[in-house]
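Subject: Predicted fold for Pescadillo homolog, 603 residues

User T.R. writes:
Posting the sequence so we have a shared reference for the thread.
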Amino acid sequence: MPKHYRPAGKKKEGNAARYITRSQAVKYLQVSLSLFRKLCILKGIFPREPKKKVKGNHHTYYHTKDILFLKHEPLLEKFREMRAYEKKIKKAVSKKNRDLAERLLTRKPSYTLDMLIRERYPKFIDAVRDLDDCLSMVHLFAALPAVEREKIPVNRVHNCRRLGHEWQAYIARTHKLRKTFISVKGIYYQAELDGQKITWLTPHALQQVLPDDVDYNIMLTFLEFYETLQAFVNFKLYHSINVKYPPILDPRLEALAADLYALSRYFDNRASMTESATTSFSESDVSKDQGKGPNYDESELRLAQLQQQLPSNEPGALMHLVQNAAETDEDDSETRECKTLFKDVKFFLSREVPRESLLFVIPAFGGSVSWDGEGAPFKETDQNITHQIVDRPTQGHKFLSREYVQPQWIYDCVNARILLPVEEYIVGRIPPPHLSPFVDNEAEGYVPEYAETIKRLQAAARNEVLPMPGVGKEDLDDPQNLLVEGVIDRAEAIEAATKKRKMSVLQKQYHDELKKELRSTQISTASDGNKESVSEHIDAGEDSLPDLSQISKDADSMSKIVMPRKKQKLLKAMEIGKERKQASVDRLKERKRKIEEGKKSGK
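User M.O. replies:
I've generated the structure tokens; pasting them so everyone works from the same file.
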């Protein structure tokens, strides 16, 4: 009998019962492979790696319980209904029944992913933890062109832009942005929301090229889920600061679209009417007003607003939303620090700088910003502008009342949390290296030179005292301990110096007595003719005597070796200070000597 023989009809056990291959799952659910992939993406079901692959290593395995969840998913029945309905439409078109086909198209069933969001994320904090990939995907498709052959429609691109700008408006309003970094791939951002750090990547505002080796159907399935998730998160965040969602944009910033401008005015008038008091108007007056004008549904007007949304106007409109939002009272210390970084600074953006990114970063840190174009809050000729962001080799016309800096200065100031000196970032100069805030220099074992400069500037801005070489930061935190150790070290140093002096005196006395004894013996035994040889012997005796300087150096080195490491570092720092003082005194003496020589030569 084979080792793994199982009689027919016996229940499966082990990995054979717990796992199922992809082809078996597709056959079990009676769906196509593309629909199976879509269901797995929406439900969050991923392949598994069993310890023992029963069917072989070339198969993809899924957990049997996951497939059973898919079997009872209501979305699967909805997809089957939609497939049957599409067959009806195709049949009507093939029979050339145009009226029936049009009626069927208007009643085409649709589905929503709301229940999946609530199922996968029972709490809001769970959705916040999973926002990294969501935000990166939404911002990626917001920058892609609408291509019909890749099934990327225009409304999906506009919806991604709207969701991305709404998220950025909330982060800028609540000052939750913490880090930024410009890389070759794009611009990295990190925000802190409910104690969770969210990092996402936005591509540069350039013409994007779509590669051919990417399956956009899978990416669009992920995007479909992420759009619903982002809309839920934005809704929750906006209501947490008492702002209506979706936001109504400023009509001044949509002057290029007349219809959209009129719809926004209608929304503003309707909001002002509800805020003032509806009690002054009776129901009859409202019915009369509705009889005079067309009766629009709010959802239809909002849909028309989104369809006609101009991408160039959205950043400024959302910045206007940020300015008008209500203030929050409960802010932590880091949020308060970010809020006041650009508090008294007024920026103006030139045409060549990344406007959308700077319109997001500058308000997030408390600054006011304007740009060159219609709908700007203030013009370039405003005398209150303190900094103008320029990214060109030279600047022709300049205002003396402001600084002209490169865009990197904004991002470096944000990462350092201080206003860095602008001399290194002026127009036409190569800026210093753009350091990543996501890298821990201490852990890497290498601290760049500019990072040390920023550290010193931060300490100067916060009135901190940096430790001397050889002294740790824990010594500065406990000055009493440092004082005690300094007193002990000083007493030990004084005791060692006295011992050294006594030893040197005794050694000198011994050497003098030895010299006298040698001279007396040589003079008594030598004749007058060989006095020169006697003197040579005396000199040789002096040379054979031990060197006093070498003995003192040996004593110093021995005392250093006996000292603890911390005291050795402190002694080394004291010696470095003495050497620097002596060098400065020597320089002053040399300068004085040169001045005197110059006076003498002049006479």
